[in-house]
Task: inverse folding
């Protein structure tokens, strides 16, 4: 569970600096689907990376 928080923090820090992904997805009148896809691919890539390393 802690790794999910770390992945989300790294995605915010590296992929979209200066913007919170959760704000882009939730706190807009029209939700930003692209930000949701970026977050989804970050989780998928992290799962592949952790599976490959361990």
Result:
């Amino acid at each position: 569970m802690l790794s999910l928080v770390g992945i989300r923090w790294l995605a915010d820090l590296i992929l979209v600096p200066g913007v919170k992904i959760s704000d882009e997805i939730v706190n807009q009148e029209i939700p930003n689907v692209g930000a949701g896809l970026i977050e989804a691919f970050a989780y998928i890539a992290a799962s592949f990376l952790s599976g490959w390393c361990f």
